[in-house]
What we know:
CATH superfamily of the largest domain: Glycogen Phosphorylase B
CATH topology of the largest domain: Rossmann fold
Mean pLDDT: 93
Largest sheet: 7 strands, parallel
Helix content: 25-40%
Number of domains: 2
Structural class: alpha/beta
Strand order of the largest sheet: 5-2-1-8-9-10-11
Low-confidence stretches: none
Amino acid sequence: MPFVPPVRLAYLVSHPIQYQAPLLRRISAEPDIELTAFFCSDISVKPFQNPGFGQVIAWDVPLLEGYRHQFLPAWGQRDRLSFSRPFSYGLTRRLREGGFDTLWVHSYARLANLLAITTARRLKLPVLLREEATAFSLPRGPARRFVKRAFMKGLDRLVSAYLAIGSANSDYYRAHGIGPERIFPMPYAVDNDRFREAAEKARPESGKLRRALGIPEYAKVALTAARLIPEKGIGDLIEAWAETRKTMAPEKQCRLIIVGDGPLRTELEARAAVIGGVHFAGFRNQTELPAFYALADLFVLPSRREPWGLVVNEAMNAGCAILASDHVGAARDLVRPGVNGEVFPAGQTARLAQSLMHLLVDDARLAAMGRASRDIIAGWSFEEDVVGLRRALASVLGR
Length: 399
């Protein structure tokens, strides 16, 4: 049912995010939802230093087109993101003068966001919270778990509804005493149409990319795309790859492509050079990634800590089978073992090597899993996001 009158929805997030921009455009297309995004920083709309990639990044997709947005003023510099920076102000006046009905906040892990949640409740505005947290997103000892439970109990008094990005995130909320009636699925999704169409367009040119990387025509390709930092588990993947290379028949020798950059690159390249069959492609921007997905048969995400992993969504749109650790949030919802891939215990390189071998030696099974990935991801899209958001809004506004 349409909202009458239209819902005026304020959205607070740290900065324009490449994955979120198309979602905000999609929500803004709803005739009865008037969305305005408020950003604390403009760091991502210009070239910026990304510590995870170890280089200056300039996104090559539009971040601000197709939806209303404002950048909040801040004290001090706005080119650094942390718990307390930038320290934004002015949201209270904008919420009051804009006649907003609801505030949607992305993440509670920033001081400005916590203050905004408190402000919204003081203004009697319902608060929707979308957060990535899972049971495995950050290891905690008994003392930290006690503090987190106390924090969540206090936060829950201020939040009206929770927008769950997936099953692991939903389970996290329930584990902290939040009733299922207040949790609404709003899955982490990508622009499926864009990635699917871009991969199909790139597929006829895959031979050129193979030759540029020095990959034989016959070789099956495993691909990973990640920042080269410890928690992404790329070291585990290289160790498992070494075992796979030892046991795989010569005519079945495959290749591994590592897309990404970061502080561990030099170390990882040195380890991979001893093994062989590993190609480092460096950082690739959003419009470049589909060509790599189109080339790959299997996408691997071996992270030891990954609240979601949107690269899994992207690879599935290109028809890749998926191999992911059980500490990848996306694995719980998008990887169906034996159907479109496999899941292995995070950090267990022997199990990872077994799964690599099992998947890469059977061409027919690998192709069937790739087709299944495309079918599964078709039902995990921005359309489901809009449905979940509308249900949450109807619940908190009583419409």
